[in-house]
Amino acid sequence: xxxxxxxxxxxxxxxxxxxxxTTTQLNMLGDRLKKLEKPxxxxxxxxxxxxxxxxxxxxxxKESEIKPETLAxxxxxxxxxxLYAQNGILAHVNKGEMVICDRYVLSSLVYQGIExxxxxxxxxxxxxxxxxxTVFLDIDPEIALERMKDRASLEIYEYREFQEKxxxxxxxxxxxxxxxxxxxxxVDASKSAQExxxxxxxxxxQMPILKHNENNx
Length: 217
Ligand code: TYD
Prior knowledge:
This protein is an alpha/beta fold. Helix content is 49%, strand content 16%. It is built from ten helices and five strands; from the N terminus they run E-H-E-H-H-H-E-H-H-E-H-H-E-H-H. Helix 1 crosses helix 9, helix 2 runs antiparallel to helix 3 and helix 3 runs parallel beside helix 6. It is globular and about 45 Å long. The structure holds thymidine-5'-diphosphate.
């Protein structure tokens, strides 16, 4: 792990509670970026679909039981691979590409912060670079859970009481992340996917890598 707290350029992350639409917005942004003059970017997500990510997903789906502290380690281990692997996030940004990602460090500070207190996720994530920009999709958990009601099964964190804590915890975690140099923009995610995306694009298109790319209007 890298000890330095650096800003990772051209790296954009979506964060939010469950059902806030991070995956939808990631996909809409990916479709928009494909229309650029130079559409070179990586669209990715955490937990990843790598070996460690698969263990995490089985626990999220309640197929296996893993202690909250162990999960905190697994999320951080999955992230370490995601960042530093040969074809990982840093390899892409170092080639001058943009990387867009569904969830990152803030998710661990929030979800594992609730589950195992702040110290462990803070310690495990203190070495990971900060994205150039983070977009926080803010939504009332009641609306978010209503959106998820047709899903065949719910994951371990997908219930009202926990999601209320998640929303509150994001606010304090974002304040602390900003104090470390992070740029975090909050977007009202209760609107339609297109309305939310219009707000997301008005923010994201200001990133230097996109300002300098043609056809980005
Ligand atoms: P996500 O993939 O966004 O959910 P879905 O499978 O419904 O698309 O995220 C999976 C869950 O993992 C979500 O509840 C948030 C949680 N999570 C953590 O608890 N810590 C983390 O570090 C990350 C990346 C995700």
